[in-house]
Design brief:
Length: 509
């Protein structure tokens, strides 16, 4: 088993409870070393952040945990999740391909979000499935800032539903060949993770423990309704071949709300499946200190996310996402730039010192060198006409080379085009093909043709109007449009083609 750290801490900050888990590596085993759970007062109305910070510090103090770096996660309802299918792509182009997919799938400019992606398939096939996740940057910055205020740090922010799935997959607590689901019932939110053969699908909804405790049977009915709608939508989106009734083969419960009396039996009856509680400790060794606390049963329901977070630093997991990946990469680049800057300053100082020593050389040596320079200038005057002839030939070649450089540089035009298109592209429209040609002149026009699909003619018209308003495009003309039927959903879609001129300025060349 490959290990990254000797110890790892997962911190799950929920609406009602804060959960902390410390895992420790030992040989080929991972030990549940310590864990703690603190309840956030239910009637808390003011200074919530201050109380949460105090409870976290109490968990560290009471469990005698000295490490200050933790892994945390963002809740399902604050995260934007999309699943995409990718044709086989070369490794060196994979990052660029995923960024393009993210720009099409995420309904916000990439500069405003922290995002990451991961393959769902283990095998490299012609077509592979991947998950893309995104969250507003201000939410990530807020999470990091709150930890920093109590002298904690983090280098990993995961997605709660994915963390739960990783915990289950690590513990091999499921049948991969069957269609199963994890239902994580928190205080305010429930997460449903549908899985089969390494692929997953996620949905979060605001019907959970507090609602059930408040309205009893009505809350359970609302929860079941959301689950049934989610399963129906899963079958519709995935194209899963269901023989007869569309149902789950297994249902795994976790989260504090899963311990509500009667909910397990009701879910089993209504969904025609026998639920069971997830065991996040199935493949972990348990320390003596933690063993007695686990027997209470509450930990088994509440610690799945915290265990999944702590596992990220101990072993490789099925799906690895981190909203801080880009920020960590930028920080590393900044550190490298600072090192290079200091080296440059040191080199500049060394040059100054060397030059000063050189200037203090004997004056007579300099006079001797000046004499030799005069002799060389005399020789140069003899060959000056021939040099002028060679310079003229060189200028002619440079002109030809300039045209070739212009051809290469003009490729940057298309990056600007696709950036503008990604910013104005309506959510109901997606591009399926594009082609273009650019003039070799320093100024002039390039030509761009687009093909795509939309949910309505109005969406196509809006897209054409937006293209016409963009300064980079002129003479925008729709070429064709037609109604087609989506082979997956059976819904009618509009297929269209558009052509336009692209303004090529001298600065772009």
């Amino acid at each position: 088993m490959h290990k990254f750290n000797k110890t790892s801490i997962g911190l799950d900050i929920g609406t009602r409870f804060i959960k902390l888990v410390e895992l420790q590596g030992s040989g080929d085993s991972i030990i549940l070393n310590r864990f703690g759970i603190k309840e956030i007062p239910k009637d808390l109305k003011t200074d919530r952040e201050k109380v949460i910070s105090q409870l976290i510090l109490q968990l560290f103090s009471e469990n005698n945990i000295k490490a200050r770096n933790v892994n945390i996660s963002a809740g399902g309802q604050s995260v934007f999740v999309r699943f995409v299918k990718l044709l086989q792509t070369k490794e060196e182009k994979l990052k660029q391909t995923m960024k393009f997919e993210a720009q099409n799938q995420i309904p916000f400019p990439l500069a405003e979000v922290a995002w990451d992606w991961s393959f769902l398939d283990r095998d490299k096939k012609a077509t592979r499935k991947a998950v893309i996740v995104a969250i507003k940057k201000n939410l990530v910055e807020g999470m990091v800032s709150r930890l920093k205020a109590i002298k904690l740090s983090t280098s990993l922010i995961d997605v709660s539903p994915v963390t739960i799935y990783n915990c289950m997959a690590f513990n091999e607590d499921y049948d991969e060949a069957k269609l199963g689901a994890i239902l994580d019932i928190g205080a305010k939110t429930a997460n449903l993770v549908v899985f089969k053969k390494g692929n997953i699908w996620i949905r979060s909804f605001p019907i959970a423990g507090d609602r059930i405790e408040e309205t009893k049977e009505q809350g359970i009915e609302e929860l079941i309704g959301e689950i049934e709608r989610s399963i129906e939508y899963y079958f519709m989106q995935s194209g899963e071949d269901a023989q007869g009734e569309k149902r789950l083969d297994e249902l795994i419960l976790t989260g504090g709300g899963s311990a509500i009396e009667g909910i397990e039996a009701t879910l089993g009856t209504r969904l025609n499946v026998k639920p069971r509680v997830m065991d996040p400790f199935r493949k972990l060794r348990v320390s003596k200190d933690a063993f007695s606390s686990i027997q209470s049963g509450a930990a088994r329901n509440q610690l799945s996310i915290a265990v999944g977070l702590a596992l990220r630093d101990m072993t490789g997991l099925r799906i690895e996402l981190n909203f801080l990946k880009e920020m960590i990469s930028e920080s590393h680049i900044l550190t490298q730039k600072n090192v290079y800057s200091r080296l440059s300053i040191a080199m500049a100082a060394l040059i100054v010192v060397s030059f000063s020593v050189f200037m203090r050389q004997d004056y007579s040596v300099k006079r001797t060198k000046l004499g030799k320079v005069d002799e060389m200038l005399g020789v140069y005057s003899t060959y000056e006409p021939k040099i002028k002839e060679l310079q003229d030939a060189e200028d002619m070649l440079n002109g030809k080379i300039g045209i070739l450089y212009q051809t290469v540089d003009s490729r940057a035009i298309w990056l600007d085009c696709y950036r503008v298109i990604s910013e104005i592209l309506p959510r109901e429209v997606w591009i399926t093909d594009s082609s273009g040609i650019v003039s070799l002149e320093k100024t002039g026009l390039a030509r761009l043709d687009l093909s795509g699909k939309a949910l309505s003619y109005q969406a196509v018209n809006n897209f054409v109007s937006a293209l016409k308003s963009a300064p980079i495009f002129t003479d925008v003309k729709p070429i064709s449009s037609s109604i087609d039927t989506d082979e997956n959903t059976g819904e009618e879609i509009v297929k269209f083609s558009i052509t336009m001129d692209v303004v090529v300025t001298e600065s772009e060349g």
